[in-house]
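Incident log, support desk, overnight shift.

02:14 A customer reports that sequence design results differ from what the structure should imply. Their input is reproduced verbatim below. On-call engineer (initials T.W.) acknowledged and began investigating.
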């Protein structure tokens, strides 16, 4: 009589709930990933948000995990160079590999391209014509334009250099371009020249307002611009036209570009706390963060 066969116990693969670190890419879900990587990244994110190195307990708390669990991840991150630990203070900080990754990412960012990709959503929020300006050889220069449908056409073109004192773009660049560097050193002479030219212009009869007449007026306008975090004009550049320009800063805190919204004062709310101004500021601040800029504490 043949020996009885021992039944083979069937085992099922661990489910995501019992094996959180398993790679589930084979289950057909394109969103599947490795959960342990996502969990460990919380430690790196906490370090990048912190003003300096952190003790283990503080880092673990910031990442929302126990100190023992955080320590296991940190051991691996140290081996990879993503994290380093001071042997005296025992505090943890980002390591040289994290620095290399950050620098490589920043070097590959096309700031204007990144901004252009955000404009359609911003157009949906504001409903008004948008533009991007950068500092060119002659001053703030329009380099991209997205016109809103059913808006009053504005006689501005790509490549136009905007005046510093009577355009929202110019006021933004004049207020937020740092004094250091060649561009910052050019601001004051350009403002003097612009004031002199305006005094020589014949009266046009156009209802232009809020136009600085002297250096005292200029400083008041720039102070107001810095106070609100963006440039604004109403009937200053063209009669019947208003606009805002919000600054976008790079990782070094330098002004990278200005985001502009403009339109007829009959339809564009030109109050400082208006919805278009708020949407423009939020977009500019997010772009600044994406370029590596960190707001001062």
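02:41 Re-run completed on a clean worker. Output:
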């Amino acid at each position: 009589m043949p020996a009885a066969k021992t039944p083979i116990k069937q085992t099922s693969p661990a489910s995501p709930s019992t094996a959180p670190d398993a790679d589930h890419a084979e289950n057909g879900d394109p969103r599947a990933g490795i959960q342990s990587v996502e969990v460990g990244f919380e430690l790196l994110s906490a370090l990048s948000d912190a003003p300096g190195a952190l003790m283990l307990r503080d880092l673990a708390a910031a990442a929302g995990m126990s100190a023992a669990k955080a320590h296991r991840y940190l051991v691996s991150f140290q081996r990879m160079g993503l994290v380093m630990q001071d042997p005296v203070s025992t505090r943890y900080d980002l390591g040289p590999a994290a620095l290399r990754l950050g620098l490589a990412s920043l070097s590959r960012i096309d700031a204007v391209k990144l901004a252009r990709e955000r404009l359609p959503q911003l157009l949906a929020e504001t409903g008004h014509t948008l533009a991007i300006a950068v500092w060119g050889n002659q001053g703030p220069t329009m380099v991209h334009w997205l016109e809103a449908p059913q808006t009053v056409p504005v006689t501005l073109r790509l490549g136009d250099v905007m005046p510093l004192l009577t355009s929202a773009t110019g006021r933004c660049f004049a207020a937020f371009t740092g004094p250091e560097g060649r561009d910052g050193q050019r601001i004051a002479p350009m403002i003097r020249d612009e004031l002199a030219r305006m005094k020589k212009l014949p009266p046009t009869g156009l209802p232009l307002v809020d136009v600085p007449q002297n250096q005292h007026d200029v400083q008041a306008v720039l102070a107001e611009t810095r106070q609100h975090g963006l440039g604004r004009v109403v009937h200053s550049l063209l009669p019947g036209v208003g606009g805002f320009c919000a600054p976008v800063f790079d990782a070094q805190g330098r002004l990278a570009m200005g985001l502009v919204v403009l339109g007829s004062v009959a339809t564009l709310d030109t109050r400082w706390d208006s919805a278009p101004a708020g949407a423009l500021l939020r977009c500019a601040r997010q772009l600044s963060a994406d370029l590596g800029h960190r707001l001062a504490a």
